[in-house]
Amino acid sequence: MTQKQFLNVNGLRLAYLDFGGDGPPLLAVHGHFGCGRMFARLAEALRGQWRVIAPDLRGHGWSNAPEDYSREAYVADLAALVDHLGLPPLVMLGHSLGGQNTYVFAARHPDRVRAMIIEDMSALVAPSTFQSIWPERFGSVAQVLDFLESEGMGRDPYFLESLVEHPDGWGFRFKCENLIRSMRQGEGDWWADWLATSCPALLLHGHQSRVLTTDHAREMAARRPNTQLVEFPNCGHTIHDDDPEGFYQAVRAFLDALA
């Protein structure tokens, strides 16, 4: 089992997973509520071909939770990890928040990004409706699932990636107030960053997504050079959970074309 590793960035402890291998690096960046280990299945699917590296973004997983959740802070963290590992120009894959951080990172550091894969993230980010402060502890995993369902999120396995057992019950590896702050920092018009690069890009979109509309996904692909759009009619925002095989097939086909 791959172990968490850590680095310090200006006093902030950041966690990451390096799934290893001799292939070229693929930096996989999770979304809000997530953590790096959610890419374990992706790493297994690409084993022998790509070295998957997956950070826990600030305020998520086993990374520290500071006050700053600006795009500049997220990009600086990713740059510090790339420097720490001495990585050559790489492919980046990002879901949701990770997708936004990916295309902004590419815009700020075009020489460091060979190509990018964006899973269901928009260039126009609407104001978030998430305002809940979740309980810090639950008596059982069943209670967690019931709570998620009561919040309108169904019994989504995505959230369980960040669930851990504490001495006094089950809890998530994030604080909702930090995520709310992060979501607000990401709202607005990011077209300039999306269009700033022309490296090969794969945009994955689920028709049932509440984050990215189909019309906007098609506009993103049409306006940016070297951008391929793959649509998943039966998927929502988390394509990697809703249709894992279809997700891996699309990612592998894109990566094989790069090679």
Helix/strand layout:
Blueprint (H helix, E strand, L loop, with lengths): L4 E5 L2 E7 L6 E5 L10 H6 L5 E6 L14 H15 L4 E6 L1 H12 L4 E7 L4 E2 L15 H10 L6 H4 L2 E4 L2 E4 L3 H11 L1 E2 L1 H4 L6 E6 L7 H10 L3 E6 L6 H4 L1 H15 L1
Parallel strand pairs: 3-4, 3-5, 5-6, 6-11, 11-12
Antiparallel strand pairs: 1-2, 2-4, 7-10, 8-9
Helix pairs in contact: 2-3
Total domain modules: 1
Main β-sheet, spatial strand arrangement: 1-2-4-3-5-6-11-12
Please state the oligomeric state of the protein chains shown: single chain
Q: Span between N and C termini?
A: 28 Å
Query: What is the H-and-E element order?
Result: EEEHEHEHEEHHEEHEHEHEHH
Q: What is the highest CATH level, the class?
A: Alpha Beta
Radius of gyration: 17 Å
**Biggest sheet descriptor:** 8 strands, mixed
Relevant CATH superfamily: Alpha/Beta hydrolase fold, catalytic domain
Query: How many individual helices?
Result: 10
Mean pLDDT: 96
What coarse outline follows from CA principal-axis ratios?
globular
Find the CATH topology.
Rossmann fold
Share in β-strands? 15-25%
* CATH architectural type: 3-Layer(aba) Sandwich
Number-wise, the strands total 12
**Poorly predicted sequence stretches spanning 5 or more consecutive residues:** none
Overall helicity: 25-40%
Tell me the structural class. Answer: alpha/beta
